Amino acid sequence: MRKIRTAFLIVLILVVTLTGCGAEQVSDTADFFAMDTYMRITVYGDGADELTRQAEEEIMRIENVLSFSGDGEIGTINEHGGGTVSEETQELLERALELSRDTGGAFDITIYPVVEAWGFFSGEYRVPGDSELSDLLGLTGWEKVSVVDGQVSFQVPGMGIDLGGIGKGYAGQRVHDMLWEAGISSALLELGGNVCLLGGRPDGTAWRVGIMSPTDGEEYVGILEARDVSIVTSGGYQRYFEEDGVRYHHIIDPATGYPADSGLLSVTIVCDDGARADALSTALFVMGEEEAVSYWAARDDFDFILVTQDGRVVITPGLREDFQISEGYDLEVAA
Ligand code: ADP
Ligand code: MG
To answer: pTM of the predicted model, to two decimals?
Structure first.
């Protein structure tokens, strides 16, 4: 079985191979920590050094605006129970609320008070009681938020917004578009578990992206060949704590207030829009296999790779040609 340490490494290997082959393209890479995760941006082509720096700055800017805490726009709204936002934030909120509606609330940016109660923002983890959770669920619900002319208001005091399930995807897409407009035709954006590809590799071939095993951080369930799409994975294995031998992860089922327990270990979404890919990876993880497949079938405008608790890897037909499964995994194609 093919073993490579981390997604980070495979990217390193690809980049090294390319320079080793004597690719004449100029390139530059920025490694930094933002949005609570390690990021790496590699840009190929003229102006790569300056553009890499601008890309990093853009991500820092977005992080400040969207953070749930602090004096950014969302943090301020959460603290004051509403307020005004910029046009950019209004647009993202409208998109996020639309995705909440479209996923039947499986993705819900008003999950904020519940995520806070579990300690996922502060790192002071705890298991809230049943009655605490059912009270907090009264403070959630995307339909209780209105955004009109830049004015955000909540129907119930104590509500708040968490863009943690869409922010990285949005940031990746913004940087992608910024680089594209600057004339770049090859770049690799790795924002934690989110990958955003601009074009193909500098030699014109497709990027090869490893889809990490949710149970073994040193293995891949397979390799996906792709260009100019976002590839976003959500899984219960990324961020969690344990108490009394039970594992509690950070993707909450808005219907119960508990970590989603849908029979899936991870969901990878492949989509030409990064923000949508990010929101859908969270939503389909909450939905579970059956609902995820019908959600996809009714739209058929994105692709997925589901890893189930019983060891199956389920992909959409659109990925059949481009996904190479690792030994030891069973591949199924959704219909
Ligand atoms: P990650 O950010 O680790 O890549 P996700 O994209 O799945 O993973 O986002 C998870 C984050 O989104 C959580 O840390 C939390 O802040 C928030 N969140 C948790 N459950 C939901 C949900 N059902 N809908 C929207 N956001 C959620
Ligand atoms: Mg997400």
So the answer is: 0.93
